[in-house]
Amino acid sequence: MTTQATQGNQEIKIMSAIQKEDKRIAPHTHIRGLGLEESGQAQGIAGGFVGQEQAREAAGLVVDLVKSRRMAGRAVLLAGPPGTGKTAIALAMAHELGSKVPFCPMVGSEVYSAEVKKTEVLMEQVRKAIGVRVKEIKEVYEGEVLELHVHEADPALGLTAGSGKALTHLTLTLKALKGTKTLKLDPSIYEPIKKAKIRVGDVIFIEANSGAVKRLGRSDAFKAEHDLEAEEYVPLPKGDVHKKKEVIQEVTLHDLDMANARPQAGNDVVALVGSMLKQKRSEVTEKLRAEVNRVVNGYIEQGAAELVPGILFIDEAHMLDLESFAFLNRIIESTIAPVIVLATNRVGYNSVRGTDGTVQSPHGISRDLLDRLLIIKTNMYTLDQLSAILSIRAKTERTAIATDALACLAQIGLQTSLRYASQLIGPSSIVAHSRGTDPTVTAQDINDARELFLDTQRSTLVLSQHQDMMM
């Protein structure tokens, strides 16, 4: 869907972004929030977190500052050893600010490109971390699918829908609380219906003007009596099938920049993506960004849109150089800026990149930027905390693990690192299943996996023992 606003010969487009649910189990899938009580005090184990109470409470105060709009001109630095939850805390802050707040992670080394300036790369990330929520009143057809029929015709007519079949039209019967309605649809709508895997019993809505189809979920009338369901069940839509409804579209400022930097003949997302793949990366002019901001501000003043500042998380912040730090200083003071969270594992005084090496600063970050940062410290985990974290990770990865195996894994994490220990859970589960008996992971399974995958210390030792054979 595209909403257009025109001034002179310039046309600014606001496009909707389709977000697909990611089923992959990521390193921080178990993080659901900071795990704080209403008083702001951190619970020992909550929200997927274990320990780091002081850091979580400090992050909670930052979230409160953002919500009360008192965070202007400041940013956050998470400082601590590797594997102490710095990225997890930044992600939890995004959860606390709202489930749909943009979260844009990057590392300091990503700002180097052969095609565009480093400040342009940083600006792109900043724009990706700022969302725009557009509210529109649309004419839609919404309801539960009772019948779906594809009417075929003579192949000589040439009316195909991507499946090789010649179609004349579709008939779709939808049911809402106040009645049912049968729709006769154009053959072109068959492809999005097929792509969304819509079947009888699904709750969908179709935009009358654009013909866009969206699957909302499975009707709760089909909900089975199970504790865990793969499907998302939704109630029968209220009112009539044909209605006017407020539709909320969400998009980032970067998406708007790209849509207008490379205008297309068509308004579909597929055409936009295809064009982006063909062209080299190019900079978006400040003039275009200013015009996008002007139009977005116009929608906000009319009450038709809402600005949603997200979180720009920059890991390995010490990899940035002096020019990048100066640019971030300017961004932090901007009226349209996300919450900037930096993370570093550098301790003491380090050289600031982009200088001749004589400029030293704490954490390797320029002093003028450090003065604007609220610094949060993270600490190493104890053995009991490692055991609790690994237990949560095992449940997240749907792996049954014996008590002695969990203790063995925690001890490995204490000797090596939490990341290495958590990475052993998956291979150990495969080893346990290969035994063909009880799939519960045992201490022997963990030791077998450990023999196959080296940690950093053992890998360094092995290579040093055979250094004469190395180049």
Task: Please tell me about this protein's structure.
There is one protein chain. With 471 residues, the protein is α/β, with parallel strands linked by helices. It folds into three domains: 2-133 and 255-377, P-loop containing nucleotide triphosphate hydrolases (Rossmann fold, 3-Layer(aba) Sandwich), CATH 3.40.50; 135-250, RuvBL1 DNA/RNA binding domain (OB fold (Dihydrolipoamide Acetyltransferase, E2P), Beta Barrel), CATH 2.40.50; 383-465, Helicase, Ruva Protein, domain 3, CATH 1.10.8.60. It contains 15 helices and 19 strands. It has helices at residues 53-67, 86-97, 118-128, 190-195, 253-261, 269-278, 286-301, 322-332, 367-370, 383-396, 403-415, 418-423, 425-434, 443-452, 456-465; strands at 2-7, 10-15, 45-46, 49-50, 75-79, 103-107, 130-152, 167-176, 179-185, 202-207, 213-219, 233-234, 242-252, 305-309, 311-315, 339-344, 349-351, 360-362, 373-377. Strands 7, 8, 9, 10, 11, 12, 13 and 14 form an eight-stranded mixed sheet that branches. Strands 6-15-16-5-19 form a five-stranded parallel sheet, sandwiched between helices. Helix 8 links the parallel strand 15 and strand 16. Helix 11 (403-415) packs parallel to helix 14 and helix 13 packs across helix 14. The protein is globular, with a radius of gyration of 27 Å. The relative contact order is 0.15. Mean pLDDT is 79; it is low at 1-23, 159-163 and 265-279.
